[in-house]
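I hope you will forgive my troubling you with a question about protein structure. I should value your view on which stretches of the chain appear to form regular backbone elements. Here, with my thanks, is the record as I have it:
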Amino acid sequence: MNKIDIHIICGPTASGKSAHAMQKASELNGVIINCDSQQIYDALPILSAQPPQQDKDQIPHILYEHLHPNNICSAGNWREIALPKIQETIKENKTPIICGGTGLYIKALIDGLSPMPDIPEEIRTKVVEKYNKLGAQAFYDELYKRDPEIAQRFHVNHKARIIRAMEVIEATGKSLADWQKLPRETPPEEWNFIITKVLPTREQLYQRCNARFDIMLKQGALEETEEFSKRIDDGEINENVPMAKALGFKQLREYIKGETSLEDAIETAKTKTRHYAKRQNTWFKNQI
């Protein structure tokens, strides 16, 4: 069986993944396929560090700015979208270059996933509203009553996980644990994953994080935060969308609302970015 190389360029935020992917794609007649859970959304292109247009003009880029901010893109959702794009790239005799920092997307691609149900948007909204109304402990207690097997796996503070578990049982009447016991859907046997981890030293990574945020501000990050905040306030975009967790968004929004100074907002955003990059760095060293 002839093996087909699938290149994966991964690492923490601000590590330089995109530059590595551009170089690899230039060498291998490649197509860059996004595996970043922020860059997949059509919003906040500066804060999410979307590739510049000149890079997109030079090398094909896929799954960037692909979804509306109100959509949810779990690892399973991303895998379902990405697999056909990888297959199309191969049929065109080009090399897939998977690039991004969302480790769970990469694990889902390499290891496969058990099939998971699609959750209707109205159920997602209902469950989030219930969480906000009850609070973490009461919500967790209700999940424990309805699905003790899965609840025992999570801590009360694992907000996203316990919400997901409640969504599944609300939508299907079955425990998330039951779905996870189904056989994994694995990638084609002929795919050969070649992984490049871009892992700068901690000092280099922190310097890159700080410098990049300064560049983002010069490029208009504050203005795009104000525009995105208005879309939330107007009800066009849900308050709890994934993009609202974009690094720096919360702090800049607080400045826009008059809740903090610009200097403090910038410093806090840089600190949060460095801490996030550190966690990513550790994850990639140990998990991929």
The radius of gyration is 20 Å.
